[in-house]
Amino acid sequence: MTANTRIETNKPSPDFIKQLAGYGLATAEILYHLPDHPCLLQAYIWQDYDIAPDFPILIKFLTFWQEKLEGPLYRVVVGHSKLIKPAEIKTLGAEFRFH
């Protein structure tokens, strides 16, 4: 690293700013038919920050898929979790000790 190189550590990442705006990490498992072998399914995992329950970014991606790609969609399963949320504390009726 040269003397003129500066590392910005006081700026939050764009992903963190999205999380503060209500975005959470969305994961979609996309199953689609192979264009050359329609009887076979292929899986594709998509992941990005998106807003539940409307998922505008995922919908935009799936629209692009249907308009531009040849593999017809079979099924899309979506999981979503907001990354910034209050901590959950649950009490247990037992004590565990590790040596």
3D structure, described in words:
This protein has 99 residues and is of the alpha+beta class. It has a domain at 14-81. Helices cover 20% and strands 29% of the residues. It is built from 2 helices and 3 strands, in the order H-E-E-H-E. It has a 3-stranded antiparallel beta sheet with strand order 2-1-3. The longest helix is centred in the middle third of the chain and has 13 residues, at 56-68. It is extended, with a radius of gyration of 21 Å.
List strands and helices in order, with pairings.
Elements lengths: L13 H7 L3 E10 L7 E10 L5 H13 L4 E9 L18
Antiparallel strand pairs: 1-2, 1-3
Main features:
single chain; 99 residues; alpha+beta; 2 helices; 3 strands; extended
Residue stretches low in confidence (pLDDT < 50, at least 5 long) are none
Oligomer: single chain
Number of strands: 3
Radius of gyration, taken over Cα atoms and rounded to an integer in Å: 21 Å
**Secondary-structure class:** alpha+beta
Biggest β-sheet, characterized? Answer: 3 strands, antiparallel
Beta-strand percentage range? 25-35%
- First-residue to last-residue Cα separation: 44 Å
* Molecular shape: extended
Average pLDDT across residues?
83
Q: Approximately how much helix is present in the residues? A: 10-25%
Brief account:
The chain is of the alpha+beta class. The chain has helices spanning about 15-20, 55-70, and strands spanning about 25-35, 40-50, 75-80.
